[in-house]
Design brief:
- The protein is α+β, with helices and mostly antiparallel strands and 327 residues long.
- It has a domain at 196-326: L,D-transpeptidase catalytic domain-like.
- 26% of the residues lie in helices and 31% in strands.
- The protein has helices spanning 2-18, 45-60, 86-98, 113-124, 156-168, 189-195, 308-314; strands at residues 34-35, 38-39, 64-68, 71-75, 82-84, 104-105, 109-111, 135-138, 143-146, 151-154, 175-178, 180-183, 198-203, 208-213, 216-222, 225-226, 235-238, 241-244, 248-249, 263-264, 274-281, 284-289, 298-300, 304-307, 323-326.
- The strands form nine sheets. Strands 15-14-13-25-17 form a five-stranded mixed sheet, with no helix packed on it. Strands 18-21-22-24 form a four-stranded mixed sheet.
- A hairpin with a 2-residue loop joins strand 21 and strand 22.
- The radius of gyration is 43 Å and the shape is rod-shaped.
- It starts with a helix and ends with a strand.
């Protein structure tokens, strides 16, 4: 019994000796340890951090001088979104040391893109003058053209890239130059000429239809408009449909008499719509008439009448979608 007890105690002692004791985390960095090229051998965490800051800050965290049109402004690297992660680098070094690995830690640095962009905008603000877009005032007898105006401002994308390059690869002078350039308006008269390639006005008081092309008056035609009680409706409309030698779909109106609701074919002499039809909606349109004597008067039931030769000439020049101002 005594021998067995002694053997058990001996076995426990052997087991205790066999269990490894966890190595204590190092409190200082080993010989030859470097962080971002800085020798941090034998330093504890706080001393390594202090040495790193003393060595790296003068290089990586120096303010950047931004020169715009001879005006210089110093900007802190932190305001440009840069952060040097001293604590992270030191922590990584001690982790490598604890794992018995060679301690050579690279520079850990980030650039906040949003913060950088905001600073670029702030730098350019004193030099910014907004461009003015061209515009037109669409009238009945003419189109007033108002020219745009150039603005000015820094080339933000180029300045931003220059700052990124300087933060990533510091230069001895630490100076970045930016240029103020002309800013063209987004909308020019040429743009508007394409947008309003065709424009038509109906002048009811003077019995004139005017055709504008690329913002310029190119032709004026005599017309007839709606009679009293059946006036041609005022306002802005658009050409919704076009037809050659159209039939007349007689509206269900009292003035149509016995023809109300009927469709009169183009070959029927009772069809008042001659040669061409440019529909403006709600039964109103531009068309030719055989009653040439009515041109220059208020004679229609709401439509715009033209001489047959005139409406034939107008027809191919006015595409569907053209705005028509009736005044």
């Amino acid at each position: 019994m005594k021998i067995s007890r002694i053997a058990a105690i001996a076995g426990l002692s052997a087991l205790a000796i066999a269990v490894p004791v966890a190595a204590a985390a190092p409190t200082t960095l080993p010989s030859g340890a470097t962080i971002a090229g800085v020798d941090v051998s034998g330093l504890d965490s706080s001393a390594a951090t202090a040495k790193l800051q003393a060595a790296l800050a003068p290089v990586w965290e120096r303010p950047v001088t931004v020169s715009i049109e001879g005006q210089d402004q110093q900007v802190a690297s932190a305001d440009l979104g840069q952060t040097v992660d001293y604590a992270g680098m030191v922590s990584a070094a001690f982790k490598r040391a604890a794992g018995h690995h060679a301690v050579h830690v690279k520079l850990a640095r980030t650039i906040d893109g949003k913060k950088l962009s905001a600073e670029v905008t702030s730098l350019g603000k004193p030099f910014y003058k907004a461009p003015r877009n061209s515009r037109v005032v669409l009238g009945v007898t003419k189109i007033k053209r108002i020219h745009g105006r150039n603005g000015r401002g820094i080339e933000s994308s180029k300045l931003r890239q220059k700052l990124i390059d300087e933060l990533r690869h510091p230069t001895p002078t630490r100076v970045v130059h930016a240029r103020v350039s002309r800013l063209a308006p987004a909308v020019t008269l040429k743009t508007l000429a394409r947008r309003y390639s065709t424009y038509v006005t109906v002048d009811r008081d003077h019995f004139k239809l005017r055709l504008f092309k690329r913002l310029r008056l190119v032709k004026t035609y005599p017309i007839a408009v709606g009679m009293a009680g059946l006036e041609t409706p005022a306002g802005i409309r658009h050409v919704l449909e076009k037809q050659v030698n159209p039939a007349w779909h007689v509206p269900n109106s009292s003035w149509a008499g016995s023809l109300a609701g009927q469709t009169i074919p183009a070959s029927d002499p009772r069809d008042p719509i001659k040669a061409r039809w440019l529909g403006l909606g709600d039964g109103v349109g531009i068309h030719g008439t055989s009653e040439d004597w009515s041109i220059g008067t208020r004679a229609s039931h709401g439509c715009i009448r033209m001489h047959v030769s005139d409406v034939i000439a107008l027809y191919p020049r006015v595409p569907v979608g053209t705005p028509v101002l009736i005044h």
